[in-house]
Description:
Layout: H1 7-31, H2 34-90, H3 94-176, H4 180-193, E1 197-201, E2 204-205, E3 210-211, H5 214-222, E4 229-230, E5 237-240
Parallel strand pairs: 1-5
Antiparallel strand pairs: 1-2, 2-3, 4-5
Amino acid sequence: MPLKASPDDxxxxxxxxAIDTRLQQLDHRAKTLPEEAALAxxxxxxxxxxxxxxxxxxxxxxxxxxxxxxxGDVSVVEARIRRDTDRLQAxxxxxxxxxxxxxxxxxxxRQLDLEEIELTVMERxxxxxxxxxxxxxxxxxxxxxxxxxxxxxxxxxxxxxSERGHSVANRxxxxxxxxxxxxxxxxxxxxxxxxGASLLRGGVSSASGVKLNESDMASIRAASPDDVVxxxxxxxxxxxxxxxxx
Length: 246
C-alpha cells in the first residue's frame, strides 16, 4: 500500500529540501574558504622563511664567535706589546734591547694582521646582521598577515556557522510538523540518492532536470493527491502542485 500524506505536508518537503541543500552549500563553503587556502600558502612561506632565518642567525653567531676570538688574539698581542715596551724602556742591555725590538716588530706585524682580519670579520658580520634583520622584518610582516587572514577566516566561518545554526533550527521546526513516516522516507531517499524531494513543474522533475515521459506522467496523473509518489529518475519524493502540468 503506497504511503499517504496530505499535499500540504508533501509541499513542506520542498522547504526541507531547500534547507538541506543550503546546509550542504554552507558545509562546502566552510571547507573551501579562500582564507584557508591563503593561510596554507602563507604557512608554507613561513616555514621556508623560518629555515632561512635559522641559517642566517647561525651565520651571525658564527661570525660573532670568530670576531670574539680575533679580538681576544688582538688583546693578547697588545698586552705583549705593552709588556715588551715596558721591558725595553727599562733594559740597559744591548742584547736584550735588540731582542725586544725584534720581538716588538713581529708583534706589531701580528697586530696589524689581526686588526685587518678583525675589520674583515666585522664587515662580514655587519652584512650578516643586516640580512638576518631583513629576514626578521619579513617574518614579522608575514606573521602579521597571517594574523589578519586568520581573523578574516574566523569571521567568515563564524558567519557561515551562524547561518547554519539558523538553518538547522528552521529545519527542526519544519521536520517536527511532518508525519514521521513521510519524514523517514524523505531522509532515506536523501541519504541514498542525494535528494529527498523534487518539485514537478511542467512535467519536469527539479531533482533530475529531466522531463518525464508520457507513461510516467500517466501514472502520476492516476495517483491520488495524497499518494506519495517517487520521481522515476531521481527517486526523490515527487511533489505535485498546480504547476506540475498534470
